[in-house]
Amino acid sequence: MKRPAMTRDKPVDQVRATARDVLRAVRERAAYANILLPKLLRERGITGRDAALATELTYGAARAQGLLDAVIESAARRPVADIDGAVLDVLRLGTYQLLRTRIGSHAAVSTSVDLIRSEAGMGPSGFVNAVLRKVSQRDEDLWVDELAPSMAVDLVGNLAFRYAHPRWIAEVFVDALGGSAGQLQAALAADDERPPVHLVARPGLITAEELALVSGGDPGRWSPYCVYLPGGDPGQIDAVREGYAGVQDEGSQSVARALTQFELADDHGRWLDMCAGPGGKAALLGAIADIDGAHLDAIEVSEHRAELVRKVTRDLPVTVRVADARQTDLDPGYDRILLDAPCTGLGSLRRRPEARWRRTPDDVVTLVELQRELLDEAVRLIRPGGVIVYSTCSPHPAETTEVIGAALAANPALRQLDARSEVGVDDVGAGPSVQLWPHLHGTDAMFLAALTVDA
Ligand SMILES: C[S@@+](CC[C@H](N)C(=O)[O-])C[C@H]1O[C@@H](n2cnc3c(N)ncnc32)[C@H](O)[C@@H]1O
């Protein structure tokens, strides 16, 4: 590890300084914590238990931001908007340690004071000390009891606060769950936990059993390609480094595989992935296409993301093109089309720590329009009797069932297929579409619907 930077009197704690730097980049320049943190850990030579602690503190504080801010506002007696950004980052980090880790109060407060003093001097460090001492006087449950809306009056608001979600997202979940408060609690709680790492064993290259053996993981429950990794850095596994395996949520694997599971008459092996970047599903589809003698066209609007698709589909029967999939110059007649649409990502919030606080209800409107246009193009490109799988990593009804409903209403030749048996996951409701959930299936909250066009 690099030598810690020296301040006037104490060495700066590299682990907490790194967590602070990521929180700052997230706040100031909308960085993605799950991309920046691994990069900083590598650059700073932070490994092993130190890396695990930095990850826990960074992702935990980013995920719990709304709850932490409410506690900080109460303890500081001022809105967080009135607190200097650099001070706020340290307060969030300190409050997270006090409320949600087993780190002792003294260590949580003193390391936070050292962190701000090294950067901003005595004045701000006195403020941080005073606020965190106040925070430390209660545990998380007591703070929640004091600050959350009353359960009797506003159950959704209470649960949203308790499990650190913006209220509008809790409302979307309760809608998607058919109004069940018990399910809402379980869904929010699952979303508030550190997510497990799922690996995909690329078919034809390595089996899930072999991957489980070399990675020390366990074969997954639903996808025949999935391995659950108990811990550690997946980037250190040879099979991942060599491209035989990748990191991919089991729900995402199940969606990609479902496209290949529908029985089609006269399948000519012309497959299309309309929104392919960064390529998780394209790599799995490409590997299955290789075995089935099919070919996959992969479209992606962003050049950078298309390059990522090219990388993971090298040596597979996949052609990657940079294009806007709303209006392509492709010839119709595809047998199978995956439309894994750009979406709010509300179904994978556990994997994107800060995303829940960055997304807004306005995002939904823009995305729904894009999703509808993309689905129109999929309908143009599919051959009669072919199958379109429309998927999102969001359970938001506006992005899922309502997009499908609108397409069915506008196209009399379009028909929805029951996707339940093809997705290979149990207990997915009454169909014909499938909504997966972390609390029910252990996957991200992926949605999928299958459509065909009658001749
Ligand atoms: C949900 S992600 C797809 C994830 C991908 N299927 C995977 O499994 O790795 C949506 C992708 O659609 C791309 N996209 C957005 N608008 C698009 C458009 N008009 N045409 C093609 N791709 C688009 C985004 O850049 C993004 O990479």
UniProtKB/TrEMBL annotation:
GO terms (BP aspect): regulation of DNA-templated transcription; RNA methylation
Nucleotide-binding in keyword set: no
Residues that, per the record, bind S-adenosyl-L-methionine: C275, A276, G277, P278, G279, G280, K281, E300, D324, D340
Key words of the record: Methyltransferase, RNA-binding, S-adenosyl-L-methionine, Transferase
Superkingdom of the source species: Bacteria
Domain SAM-dependent MTase RsmB/NOP-type span(s) in chain numbering: 173-454
PROSITE patterns (alphabetical): SAM_MT_RSMB_NOP
Pfam families per the UniProt record, alphabetical: Methyltr_RsmB-F, NusB
Keyword Methyltransferase (UniProt): yes
Positions annotated as active site in the UniProt record: C393 (nucleophile)
One GO MF term: RNA methyltransferase activity
Protein family membership: Belongs to the class I-like SAM-binding methyltransferase superfamily. RsmB/NOP family.
Function of the molecule: May act as RNA methyltransferase.
Protein name stated in the entry: Putative rRNA methyltransferase
Annotated source species: Gordonia soli NBRC 108243
Lineage: Bacteria, Bacillati, Actinomycetota, Actinomycetes, Mycobacteriales
